[in-house]
Description:
mainly alpha
Amino acid sequence: MVEQEYTECLLGNKYHEIDDFDIAKKEEDIGFYAGFVGCSFMVGRALTSVIWGLVADRYGRKPVILIGTASVVVFNTLFGLSLNFWMAVITRFGLGSFNGLVGPIKAYAVETLRDEYQGLALSAVSTAWGIGLIIGPAIGGFLAQPAMQYPSLFSQDTIFGK
């Protein structure tokens, strides 16, 4: 039981999601599969970061920032609605592939602000990113398994029950 709580703490909501997919034959394998879901984001990001930098240089920072922001909404929603393990992996990979935000945002801040405000702008970007990494999973955990947590609002027969 303590090992399960420790694993849940490390993996967050992915633990319950992988458990719901019934892909792991044993409870000990849930962390193995959650690792694939977690790393697929970084694989997508590693494969496309340079491309997004080139696109931002050629077509401008704003379009890349808008595409990246829209992709966060779309792919995180699809990830939350994943019905099986492979859909979860593919949506996380897609999120990473279209998430070329950090470089263009920092470049945009450096290009548009005077020298004395650039340090503040770059630290604001990092601070906002860190706050998002805290608030996002908290909201996701609060809204996870809505049919079980809020049965009066969500039916087990809908996608929220799955």
